[in-house]
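Before relying on records like the one below, remember that each one covers exactly one chain. Contacts with other chains, cofactors or solvent are not represented anywhere in the record.
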Amino acid sequence: MHKFFSRICLIFVKTGVKKIVSMDESICIKCRGAKLLCGKSRCPVLVKYYKKMEVQPLIEKNLISGSSPPSIFVGRMGYPKVYAGPMLPPIKGDTSFMDTPELWHDKKIDDIVDFRMKLVRGKYRIDVSNAKGRIVEYTQEIAMASKPVEMEVQFEKKPRGIITLYDEVQPHGPSAPIKKLWIENAKVDKKIEKVFYDEMKSVDAIMWLYEEGTFVSSIQKVFSAGLFGIQKKFVPTRWSITAVDDTIGKKIIDEVKNYQWLNEYHVYYTKSLDNLWVILMYPSSWEYELIEAWYPNTTWNPLGKKIILFGDHEYYEGRSKYASIGGCYYSARLAVAEKLRKERRQGGAVVLREIHPGYIMPVGVWNVRENVRKALREEGKKFDDFRDALLFVSSLLHIPIKRWIETSNLIKRRLYQKKIEDFIK
């Protein structure tokens, strides 16, 4: 991975909260949340700690009843034998917003941590290819539900655990092995029920649900629960998120490649969770790039002295290897492809993301997909010349455009590589 990762290690403190420290110097221990030595506006360790303390009296029991949003989680450790099960809060009523990231645009990190920490993860050991038993059936039924499901879980012991730092998955609360599980009759989503009983191939099921307007997050959940395909198989939640983003994105891109090129240069932008997003789209055959700039004192550059920029790209033929930048690559690509299909145009796109110190912890790749979607729903600025568009992009960014150009394969290629028409007089 990147050099700055080698400087980081994870330790546990008595509170059970995971925090990041340097292998050379334990800055968190020296600071203890009082001096803000990391440079952040507030201590991420304490944010997680206090949220944990708020919710702990509600969940520190062997028996919890509540309304699952609906939500499930399938782990990946030990694959193909993993832990799977539902997630529920100790709350009854309409909890659907707790697991629908498409509705989180106005939420702050503290809000997300607050309601996600209330989701307790029930764990039941399964073989992903041969999962059996009542708990498995209930987990799949919950994944198919269109509304929150009333349930009660008896755990083998009180839920315990840390707030995990996932890039792909939105955070959740503690977990415990399931002893018994009861659920009321779930109101099954008719569209999901159709793909399950029709035994569609996974790709066909994903695309049919997407075209029918099902939220991407809901498709990811059902895919993870092993409800698609002829040989139905549970899929770890982290893998299912990227698989669905990638599958839908590729299908839309295949369609986009049949359209005429954009005839102008478009720039879109938005801000959220102390992230700045700038999207540059231009006349070209399909090509795409995502570049992220992590400021010092952010999650993946906690003790660095410099801003770290890195990214991945693809040309018309696409990629053959998994993007080193992770699942966010496929989430942003899906949003870009959706925009081009809506415009019935083909083009190139460069997505630039600045992650500032206020982004104190990762909240999942939904943040990437939904914010790029949000930016692309706005009226973009239009330009007739690439350099004029790039000048406007430069005015939006905090980091000098020179650094972005040095990091970008597509912008450099656009600026410096001559085209056939340049030689035609």
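The first strand starts at residue 8 and ends at 12.
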